[in-house]
Each structure stands twice: as C-alpha cells, then as structure tokens.
Amino acid sequence: MMAWTARDVVVHNQIKEWRAEIGNYGGHDVAHTFSRWLDSSFLAIPEQVKEEFFSRLDISLFHLHNVIQDTHLHRDARERLITTAKTFEESIATLQDFHQLRIDQLHYMALQQSGRHKLYSFVQGGIAGTGGLLAFSTDFLAMALLNIRAIQFIAAAYGRDVQMPYEMTLSLKVFHAATMPPRFQAKAWDDLVQALDRQELNYFYSGDDRLTDEKWLEELIKQLMKSYAISIFRKKKVSDLPILSMAIGAGVNYLLTRRVTEFAERFYQYRYLLDKQ
C-alpha cells in the first residue's frame, strides 16, 4: 500500500463529484411513467417464469464474455496494452504490474480503449440505421458485445485480469450497473462499492452474482424502441441514404457506450485508489 499523490486526491474528488451528479438525477415524468408500467406488467408474470428468464439472460451474458475472451483480437489487444504500459515502465510484464503506474498513465490507456469502442458503437449504429436486415437484426447483440468488451479493456488498462472468475463476474456487474437507467445508477454504484468493501482476496466472486432484473430491462426496451424508430425512418432517404435513421442508430449507440465507458472507468479508478490507500 502507498500514500496517495496529489493527483490521486484530485481524481478521488472527481469521482465523488460524479457520484453526486448521478445521485441527483431524478429522471422525468415519462421515464417514471414507463417504469411504473413496466413494474405493473411484471407483476402479472409468475415468479418462477421471471426467475427462469433472468437466469437464462445472465447465462447469455456470461457466454458473451467468454466468446470475447477466446478471440485473437482480445489477446492481441491485451498484449498491446502491456506494450503501451512498458513505454511508461520497462519492468512491466503482466497486467498485475500495472499498479506501478500513475493514475494518469492508466487513464491514458483506458481513454484509448473507450475512444475506440465509442467509435465502434457509432459506426455499428449507423450501419444498423441503413436498414440492412443482418445489421438491423443483430444490433442489440453487437452493442452488448461492444460494451462488455469496452469494460473488459478498461478493466485491463487498470491492471485487472478479467479471465479470473472474480474479475469476470465483477466486470459483468459493472456492465449491468452501467447500462441501468440513469436514475438507478447511483444505487447500482453504491452496491458495487459495498461489494468491494466486503470482498476479501477471493478467487471467486462471493456476493450476489445476478446480473439482470426488471429495472435493467428498461434499457433493453429503449434499445428496441430505437430499432422501431429506425424501421420507421429508414425509408426517408437523402441522396439514396436513410440519413435520419442512420443518425438515430449512431447517436443512441454512441451515447450508451459513452455512458458505459465513463461509469466503468470511474469504477476502476476507484478500485485503484482503494487498493493504493
């Protein structure tokens, strides 16, 4: 353990200010009305059916995580991170050595990852907005993959090996929290922080490992509404391109990934400072 630098204190204060901002987000009447409608709709569904649905959804997210981990692209990106870290400190050989770096150096590497994935999301949304059957039908899956992958690499930029069971589950918990509707994110953040405070050096995640719930589905439904908007406007073309539907797809996807990557980096910055304290 080491003492915080002056820069560490500044970043810690920025995290506190950001947490206060998301805590002050109250939402709007439409969001609250939609949330109440969703809650009342789920009351009509038997508990066993809901548990089975969310259990299968959780398993799907774990499978997505493993699919990403097994790709050459993931391994190559991991090696590039280590190579970048070596330019700051020659003795670094593994992700676990990243604790030797300053928080601004880690932020630089995380910023590269978040910027790259925001661009990917923007392009993916634009392609989905063209109305092509394959891109349109796989947009949600592609966005889930992109955002889980973005969190994995932000975690790696802060020296966390998401191939370990604990880090894998935690990164998916971060994905769940970061993709919650904004008015629920402060509570989701607090739950993650409390889980860190309770967690000892275990190989496996010892807390609640459920990833999805009724509140999380609100964001999923918003993505479906985006798809519906694209389907409406894709026939309105300018110079033979559905500019409006492409703008909707690109804009919504970009904003989601920006929110996800900001949440993820705040969390891994917090962990870095917590471990260093």
Task: Offer a few descriptive terms.
single chain, 277 residues, mainly alpha, globular, EcsC protein, EcsC
List the total number of helices.
11
Shape: globular
Which value, in Å, is the CA radius of gyration?
A: 20 Å
Q: How many β-strand stretches? A: 0
Main beta sheet: strand number and arrangement? none
Report low-confidence residues grouped into runs of 5 or more. Answer: none
Order of helices and strands: HHHHHHHHHHH
Integer average pLDDT: 84
Strand content: under 5%
Domain count, please report it.
1
Share of helical residues: over 70%
Give the terminus-to-terminus CA distance: 6 Å
Helix/strand/pairing category: mainly alpha
Protein name: EcsC protein
Organism: Jeotgalibacillus soli
InterPro entries: EcsC (IPR024787)
What does this protein structure show overall?
With 277 residues, the protein is mainly alpha-helical. The chain has one domain. The chain has eleven helices and no strands. It has helices at 6-23, 29-43, 47-69, 72-88, 103-129, 133-137, 139-157, 165-178, 185-198, 214-233, 243-276. Helix 1 (6-23) crosses helix 11 (243-276), helix 7 (139-157) runs parallel beside helix 11 and helix 8 (165-178) packs antiparallel against helix 9 (185-198). The chain is globular, with a radius of gyration of 20 Å. The N and C termini lie close together (6 Å). The model has no long low-confidence stretch (mean pLDDT 84).
